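Supplementary Methods S3. Input chains for the assembly prediction are listed below.
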Amino acid sequence: MEPFTTLRAIAAPLDEINVDTNQLCPSRFNKLPYGEAYARVLLHDRRFNADGSEKPDFILNQEPFRRARILIAGRNFGIGSSRESAVFALRAFGIRAVIAPSIGDILTNNCFRNGLLPIVLPPEQTERLMRQVLQQPGAVLTVDLPAASIIGPDGALYRFEIKALRKRRLEKGLDEIAVSLEYRQAFDAFEEAYKREVPWV
Amino acid sequence: MNKPRTLFDKIWDRHVIARVDDEVLLYVDRCIIHEGSNHAFETLRRARVSVRRPKQIFAFADHYVPTDPARRAQGLDGIADKAVRGMVELLQRNTREHGIALFGLGHERQGILHVAGPELGLCLPGIVLTGSDSHTSTHGAFGCLAFGIGASEAAHVLAMQALWQRRPANLRITIDGPLGFGVTAKDVIMAVIARIGVGGAIGHVIEYAGETIRRLSMTERMTVCNMSIEAGGRAGMIAPDETTCTYLAGRQYAPDAAAQEPALAAWRELASDADAAFEKEVSLDARAIQPMVSWGTNPEQALPISGAVPDPAREPSAERRAEVAKVLAYMGLTPGTPLQEIRIDRVFIGSCTNGRIEDLRQAAAVAKRGRAVVPSWVVPGSASVKREAEAEGLDRVFEAAGFEWREPGCSLCAAMNGDELRPGERCASTSNRNFPGRQGPGGRTHLLSPPMAAAAALQGRLVDVRRLGSGS
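Predicted structure tokens for the full assembly:
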């Protein structure tokens, strides 16, 4: 997994609430193998017409937002289906951090497993950042994971919460399965006792 | 004296293998997967790791199988789309390679993983069950901790039979009072979501309690827990009781006669302690719940059938006005239109929310009172449901009323197997999500209960099933 430390990048404002995972990756694309093809899949039915041409008025089809690596969205971002393809699509498009007032639980877990940082900020802070990047297209945000902070286009500092273990994994790009395999002994001891107590499972 | 604990606390605590900072390595008793889990096997292959406990993994072909009877009869050859067929084939290959039980195409126990799984007795009180599908919350109806995971997490479960998780908070939803005539479990959960919103339970595990819940059958409890995720819940659960134990007795993966007694004794200890603390509490009066129908593009945008399409101008904030206007444009609805005047193009009865035998019985009881005037599909949730329905003659009731009787699968709920709406088509659907494009690009979904869906089929519009046939 690609480590995440500090990201200085253009942020795109997706000024909508309840953007569910089916919008992020419509069902019919779930069959694609993980890879570059997912870049086109992100918000596909919002970005493209039926004939495959781009919808020019959609924010991610406009310069400079096509080059955004940070996405700012409204509340309940990424609710719905557990499909990890929604995160594959965000990553393939180039997004490394998402900022929203609330983010679906499963999507949050999926983000951390793919080197994408989901950040929950209070609504007024998200709105302020959203307004700033709308008013100054191309404005750059700095996401500093070690410091757990964001620096806005105007230099304002925002702190976000991230738990220690998640932070460490993301900073180091640790492969979770490899780390977990070190717990084999603890697992075996647990399982032996558990199966004695609950033999019917 | 130990600290009082909730049902969730007890299950969570018993499954902790190790703790690091604020996360625990949680033991997973059983994991259910489907064709979409192929990404997880790919991850496993890249990590050069094998499946640790293949006997605790169970696979179902459901999302990508055809539900058209003629195509289904041809097995894999009946799947015309190569990419779709590839998904079903790949699941066969992956499960064979790793020694995982597959309830696949043609298997007498095939079905939607959240319908066929419980029939097999996979979800037992007190266990942790994960599934690579968000509606894994369904299984919490049995008093287990059941939740959906993504492909990377599924790969981790395959490799470790355990998962790193942060502890969610407890939310109790208490529902008391009798349900009115024509009001179903679907209306109960839709009323809950309309009340707390699609983000209302984010970060929480919901426990449903109260006398209304206690009186529900297992089918009804599964319908309620199924849509916990539509309120943002990490999981939904109901304490096990006699109803649970009676349902599980004799099922293939439930405790056998010898283990029956200790299992029941352990299950009785699971209920939340009287003084257990919940971070959040919500209560509803069942008497106030009416048949519900969604009008918008997420499950909280729902109203009693007696209501009307909301007017954006009357919304309290600019954000809400813009949101409702956008939703109505997508749905092709005019503000103020009574919901009962909304004409529909299609009806879908099925899914992991409402594809069980009791659901089909309720729908058939309405269907036999008339004739479908729009294309209306009935898709049983599993091969067992289909057999049982046919033994009772429900297939003939539906067909005599002009409904189409199809083969089991996710079908028009997930819209991944080719069953989908055309752009602009409006569907009365017993499924769980009305997100834009969920049932096919540009499709419009109205969520409702099985009897309400059958009534809509007979009239070609949304209708109050309670007034059907009384001259309304």
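Chain A has one domain: 6-174. Residues 65 and 184 of chain A are 45 Å apart (CA to CA).
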